[in-house]
Amino acid sequence: MFLKLAWRNIWRNKKRSVIILISIVIGIIAIIFFEALSVGLVNQMLDNQISIHTAHIQVHKHGFNDEKLVQNYLPNVEEVVVNLRKINKVKFISRRVISYGLITTAENSSGILIVGVVPEEERNITKISEYVIEGNYFLKNKNEILISKRLAKSLGISLNEKIVLLASRVDGKVGSELFRVVGIFQTPNSAFDKSTIYINLRDAQEMLGLGNNISEITIISTNVNEIMMLKENIAHKLGPNYEVLSYRELIPSLVMQQEMTGSWMLIIYVIIGLAMIFGIINTFLMSVFERINEFGVLKAIGMHNRKLFLMIIYEAIFLGILGSFIGSVLGLTLVIYLSKVGLNFAVFAEGLSAWGIAAIIYPEVELTGVVKAVIVIIVISVLASMYPALKALRLQPVQAIRHI
Amino acid sequence: MIKVVNLKKIYQDNGVPVKALDNINLDFEKREFTVIAGPSGSGKTTLLNLIGALDLPTEGKVFFEGEDLSLKSKSELAELRLYKLGFVFQAFNLIPVLTALENVEFTMILMGVPEEERHERAYAILEELKIAELANKRPNEMSGGQQQRVAVARAIVTNPSVVLADEPTANLDSDTGTQLMNLMEKLNRDKNITFIFSSHDPVVIERGRRHIILRDGKVVSDTSK
Ligand SMILES: Nc1ncnc2c1ncn2[C@@H]1O[C@H](COP(=O)(O)OP(=O)(O)OP(=O)(O)O)[C@@H](O)[C@H]1O
Ligand SMILES: [Mg+2]
C-alpha cells in the first residue's frame, strides 16, 4: 500500500513529476553518451595504435625496447620464428628491422624511425598497406621507401623522387643508401606519420650490416582477449634472453588513458549529479510543503516517522527507476545508432589526428556503464529526496495540521 | 481514563507569548460523549491536540489510562494514536490519492493487519455507516458530509477507546451535521467508544452529554446531563 500510495502521489502533480523525470532522463542519456564516447575514443586510439604499428605482441632481444640500437638484434631468429609458429593462438608474425636514422633530401633532413619490413608479412599485421594513398605498397624493386604525406611535404619531395637514408651500422660506421619513394601513406596518427618510414627488410639489413638478423618480431593473436596469456606463454617458451611485450607495455600512455576514462566519468557523474540533486531537492521540497497538512493527518492517525520518510523516499525511487528506464532505452538507442554511423568530428580532424584519432568516432556501449549510470541516478534521486523527507518529519503533527 | 492535570500551553507568536490554555484540570471517563465549547480562540483545538498527543504542553500533564504521556517517546506516542485514539478533523481528513476503502484500511495497514481481514473490516465499517457505495471513490469525488463519514469510519475501524473530533461538523450544513452527530452518538452507545469533540454550533453542542466550556484558556463551566 505504501508503494501504491507513493506511486499515486507521483502522479498527483503530473507536471512536476514529468519535470523530474525529464531531468533524470537527460542525466542518464548524458552519462551513457559520454561514457560510450570516451570508451569509444580511447579504444579507437588504442586500436589505431595497435593496427598502425604496435600489433598485439612484440618480441625483442632483452633490453631492446629501452635502447633501440641496431646492435641489440634478436639472437637465433630462425629458431625463434620456428618456435613462435608452433605456438597456439599466434595468428600472424612479422619480422622487422628497427633503427633510428636520418632522412635527407637536397634541402632538408629529418630524424626518423626506420622500419624494415617484409611487405607480405607486414600486410597481415598492420594496416600500413591500406594507408598508402599515393603510389604503391612496395613494388619488389631494390631500395624502395614508403614515407608519409606529412613527411613528404616537410621534406619537399614527392612520389618517385629519391632520398638518402643515414643510420649507424652494427659495426659502428655510418651506413647510407639512396631510396626511391614508391608509396606515400597517411595514418590517423600525425605524430607517427612524421617520424616513421618503411623500407624492405632486406635493404635495411644490408644498409645496417645486420646480415640475416632482425630487431623485432610482431605478433597478432587469434584472440584479442587472451593476449596477456599468450604473451606469458611466449615469454616462457623463449626464456630470459628475450623480451616479450604486449601492447599494454608498449603503449602505456594509451592504456593509462583507457584506465583514466573512469576518472573522467567520475567528473561527469559529479557534474550531472549535482545539477540533478538541486533540481530534485527543489521540486521535492515543493511537493512536500504542498502536502504538509496531509502528512499532519498521517502522523495524527499514528503513522511512524520512519514510514512517512520511506513513503517519500519510495516516490523518489519510483521516479528514479522510471526515469532511468526511459533514459536507458533512449540513451542506448542513441548510442547504438551512433556506434554504427559514427560521430563525425571532421571539424576537429586536425587536432584529433595529433592524438591518433580518426575524424569519425564510434561510441562504444558498455552495459556495465549503463548499469552504473542507472544505479548512480537512483541513488542520486534518493539522496536528493532525503532532505525534503527529513523536513517533512521535523514537523509536529499539529503544526502540520495547522497549515490547513 | 484520561486525566489532565494543571495543563498549560503558551504559544510564542512572533516572540509574544500567547496563553492558549491556563491551568486546566479535567477527568474524562469511559463512554463519555463530551463536547468542548467556547468562543473562537478559547483553546478548544489546543486542548484536543494535547489530549491526543499531537502537541506537547508547556506545563502540566496528560495521563492516558494512567500513563504519563510526557514520558513517552515520539514513536510510542505514534503507537498510542494508532491503537488507542481516533481522530476526526474539521477538514482534509482523508488522503486524496486513496479511495474511501483504502483510507479506512490505511490505519489497519499501519497496525499490520493482514490484507484479507483488513478488507473485511473496512467494508464492514463502511456498511455499518451506510456508505459502502463510496468504497471506491476518492475524496474529491465525495461531498463534505460523505468525507466526514469516511473519516469517522477510519477513526473507529481500529476500535479505539477514544475518538477526538475537532469541529467535525464545521464544514457541513446543519442536516448533514446532525446526521454525523447521530452516527457518533450511535457508535458511542453501541461500541462504548468515548467521544470528545469541540464545536461552535449550539445545535451540535446540545447533543453532548457533558459540556465543558472554555474561555481564554480556562474552564468556565463543566456540566453533565
Ligand atoms: N501555533 C500557534 N502559534 C501561536 N498561537 C497559537 C497557535 N495555536 C493557537 N494559538 C493561539 O492560542 C489560542 C487558542 O487557540 P485554539 O486554536 O486552541 O482556539 P479554538 O478554541 O480552537 O479556536 P477556534 O474556535 O477558532 O478553532 C488562540 O489565541 C490562538 O490564536
Ligand atoms: Mg479550533
| Molecular shape of chain B | globular
Number of strands of chain A: 12
Structure class of chain B: alpha/beta
> In what order do the strands lie side by side in the largest sheet of chain A?
2-3-8-5-7-6
Question: What does the main sheet of chain B amount to?
Answer: 6 strands, mixed
State the total count of DSSP E strands of chain B. Answer: 10
Helix tally of chain B?
A: 7
Number of helices of chain A: 15
Percent of residues of chain A in beta strands? 15-25%
Ligand types: adenosine-5'-triphosphate, magnesium ion
CATH superfamily of chain B: P-loop containing nucleotide triphosphate hydrolases
What sequence of helices (H) and strands (E) makes up the elements of chain B? EEEHEEHEHHHEHEHEE
CATH second-level architecture of chain B: 3-Layer(aba) Sandwich
Using the CA coordinates, give the radius of gyration of chain B: 17 Å
Q: Briefly note the structural class of the backbone of chain A.
A: alpha+beta
Helical fraction of chain B: 25-40%
Distance between the termini of chain B: 19 Å
Topology:
The complex is a heterodimer of chains A (404) and B (225).
Chain A: H1 2-10, H2 14-54, E1 57-61, H3 77-86, E2 90-104, E3 109-117, H4 119-125, E4 132-135, E5 144-148, H5 149-155, E6 162-168, E7 174-185, H6 190-195, E8 196-200, H7 201-208, E9 216-221, H8 227-238, E10 242-246, H9 247-250, H10 252-290, H11 292-300, H12 305-341, E11 343-344, H13 349-354, E12 360-361, H14 367-394, H15 397-402
Chain B: E1 2-13, E2 16-28, E3 33-37, H1 44-51, E4 59-64, E5 67-68, H2 74-84, E6 85-88, H3 100-111, H4 115-128, H5 144-156, E7 162-166, H6 174-191, E8 194-198, H7 202-207, E9 210-215, E10 218-224
Parallel strand pairs in B: 3-8, 3-9, 6-7, 7-8
Antiparallel strand pairs in B: 1-2, 1-4, 4-5, 9-10
Helix pairs in contact in B: 3-4, 3-5, 5-6
The complex binds adenosine-5'-triphosphate and magnesium ion.
Adenosine-5'-triphosphate binds at residues 11, 13, 18, 20, 38, 40-46 of chain B.
